[in-house]
Write a sequence for this structure.
């Protein structure tokens, strides 16, 4: 059961000369899906950072595999799951489907970045968890 | 009265370090809006090209102005109008609104490109007009 | 005679299913060329804004036409000219060439945006001119 | 020792409202680096596909981690290594540096995709290896 879903109509301009989605676009969609979740649950990235005194909910690690291609005219449903909360990390998983065909499966590992003594470091993730699970 | 409209939720990743939409994204949205119209009215760019023996509905000229900025969390409504059919050109106009604030106004001039004797040239636009106005 | 030039190797991922450059990329290259000029002449956008108390060198108006397509493997030379200084505007013109073939011609109209009483407005452009013509 | 390197000047437009590189851009640079290698060693993706009867050198799996941020004005050197040839796969590794600071480390797993009986499948990778190691 996904925590959030986004519909992505695949357009001509998302595709490359082979006629399939140019892969960096999938990561733009992962990021957009995460920010749409933030908007939906806690007023968006900017509001959350202000509330938590953070610089950003930055990315530490990311990956994806592509079992099948998607192309112009496809309607992809992208599912996000808040998969695992660590001490300083949140692991999100993503699955993209066109009909019942899986076109992408991936993850993002994110932290809550704070500025301390002029340096950025990942802080305790619990306050973000509290915000996102509040409703 | 617009011929087609697209809702564009402005996301964190669409914005630049000044916190406003990085302007080339507006053109990605113009192009996406045009292709969504093609999909809606005549089965999409690929189907239309196959039917008309064309290589593409390519861009000749484009422009935009930006009366006000849009930012993370804004929901933009982008209106497209089939503004003017020439002999070999279609002029599309676009207006983007966040609430009642205009954030972009622009146009695209497009042609129906055919390959003749190994060269690409703009052909008669009437067959495209017939397709798009058919319904 | 151009004021600045950038070499842009056109890559597979810049092109669309028709095999030619997806047009919003040209505007990413215009913007990149402008920022490279800022870096070259006055330490970059961030340093200039800090020095002039500005929020950004934002875009008001932009346009381009595409006399010929560019494709994967082409090496485009993009020329920028500081074409015209107004009271509150700078007009930049751009020309892109692959060999001796012109693939894009366009312009950007930019202002120096300041925050005054919580609103952004275009300020006097003369301090920017002084910086860019200093050397 | 890298098999290929690309210099990437990080521009304003590559960065997000947090002022650091919007992460999908790293994958655009991975892909661009790979295609630049293809150009350098064997005439580019299109020529290679024509020679090998392939549809594309497509992506199966990709990942990256980001030990430190990169920002506007940074010059990143991106190193590519042909890390491992499998029966039907090529594993590429990438490392990006700004000065002596590592900003990204990642990989791509690619295959040589052929169309057989109307379906795409990964073929024997040996002919690609022969081409890329020929010189």
């Amino acid at each position: 059961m996904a925590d959030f879903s986004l519909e992505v109509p695949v357009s001509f301009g998302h595709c490359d000369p082979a006629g399939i989605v140019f892969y960096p676009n999938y990561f733009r969609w992962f990021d957009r899906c995460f920010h749409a979740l933030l908007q939906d649950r806690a007023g968006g990235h900017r509001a959350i950072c202000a509330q938590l005194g953070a610089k950003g909910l930055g990315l530490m690690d990311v990956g994806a595999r592509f079992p099948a291609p998607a192309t112009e005219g496809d309607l992809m449903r992208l599912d996000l799951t808040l998969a695992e909360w660590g001490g300083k990390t949140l692991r999100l998983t993503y699955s993209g489907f066109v009909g019942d065909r899986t076109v992408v499966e991936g993850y993002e590992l994110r932290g809550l970045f704070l500025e301390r003594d002029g340096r950025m470091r990942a802080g305790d993730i619990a306050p973000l968890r509290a915000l996102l699970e509040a409703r």
In short: The first strand of chain D starts at residue 4 and ends at 9.
